[in-house]
Each structure stands twice: as C-alpha cells, then as structure tokens.
Please model this.
Amino acid sequence: MRAFGAVEPVGRLAGGRGRTYRAGHVVLRPHDGAAETDWRADVLAALHHHDDFRTPRPVATADGGWRSGDWEAWEWVPGHADERRVEDVLRAGAAFHRAVAHLDRPGFLDRKDDAWSRADRAAWGEAALPPGRTLARLAAAFRPVSAPEQLVHGDLLGNVLFSGPGAAPVVIDWAPYWRAPGYAAAIAVTDAVCWHGLPVDRVDALGVGTADWRQLLVRALAFRIATLHLLGAWDDAAIRRHRPVVDALT
Model:
C-alpha cells in the first residue's frame, strides 16, 4: 500500500480469486509475473479510450515502476459486471480488440504455463487435450480456422463493468491470448450458456457476421472444458452445465 500510495482503508473485492483489494481509488492485486505485468501496464497506460469502452489505468509505485514485491495496482473504476448483458459485453470486447489490433505478439505468451494457457494451446492443436469423452467429441469437430489472429481478451464475460447511462463500459483484468477476436467472443458466449442461463438457441445469432463462428465456439468450449480438467474441476455438475452446448455443436 505504501509503495502505491494507497492510504485509505482496505476491503476485499468480489472476484479476482479472492485476492484483489480496494483502498480508495487504488485496486491492489497479485501480479502475473514481471514480463506480462509490465507489458500490460505499459500498453494500458497509453491506450486511447473510446466511447465504446475504457480500461483502468495502472498505478505506478513511488519509484515509477509497475510492481512492488508480488503486487500491482490499478485505478478503481465504478461499475459492476452483468453476465446477462452478453451483447453489450461483445460490443465492448470488439471495441477493445480494435484498439489493440496494432500490437505485436508479446514473447511472454510462449512462456505462460498455467492451466488456462495449456488448455488454450490444446484447444488449438498446439498441445494434447486431456483425455475424456467430451473433449474427444469436440476434437472430432475441429476444422481449420481462417480468421486472422491478434491480441485478444480471453475472459470477457465477467470482466466488463457497467455503470450509469452514458458511461462507457470498462474492460478489466485483461487475460491476453493471440487468437482471432471471434474466439474471445465465443468464449464469452459459451460461458454465458454454461454458467449464466443464456439459451443455447441464441448462440448462432450472437455470432452473425463472425467468420468461422461455429468452429470458434467449438474451440472455446474445448478450451473451457480442458481448463476444468487441468484444474481438477471436471465433475458431474460441470458435465451437466456443458452438455447442452456440446450436444448443439457436435
């Protein structure tokens, strides 16, 4: 707190795996490693905001860095996630992706070795999928994707905040991947179906105009299910949640 100039009382925030705190206008959270943290802070400190979206700005330490020990800090912005507003999330995500489309692929992506990164590679044939009947069904449905790749946000649905009328939605907690922007949208849509009650029969309409939409949905679903396998969380409840959209896509 001293390093980032946070002096107000601290409270734990919802989300962030229970490890994110707010002190006044400063949000403190454990960082994701020096290379990724510094890169993301440099990008978002300079990113031009639009009417369609904005992002929090990083908070520097007293000596001008982006990290103190295991921690990073960001400006607190008002708002709340609403996973039912899928179309609004997709619009904010599309605007964000247009704003970062010029960026080069950062080298740290090749070195990431968490469950999410491993599952993403497996969903794109860059590593083996975990064993299992559901993933085998999805893998049998894999087809080539022609959409160009760029930096995207791989966890949009719960990380777009909405506030009052006229306020731009706020994109937070950027989880960077190098994939087609439609893949990021497909992850948000499959999350909405499996966890937030979006009817399965809406998934096609939400992808109108997106190249390879059905295939991106298959890959997104494989990514989420592979992640649950790697986290040891693929259980009967998860199977029931995912079965309707698996059946619809395979």
Summary: The chain has a mean pLDDT of 95.
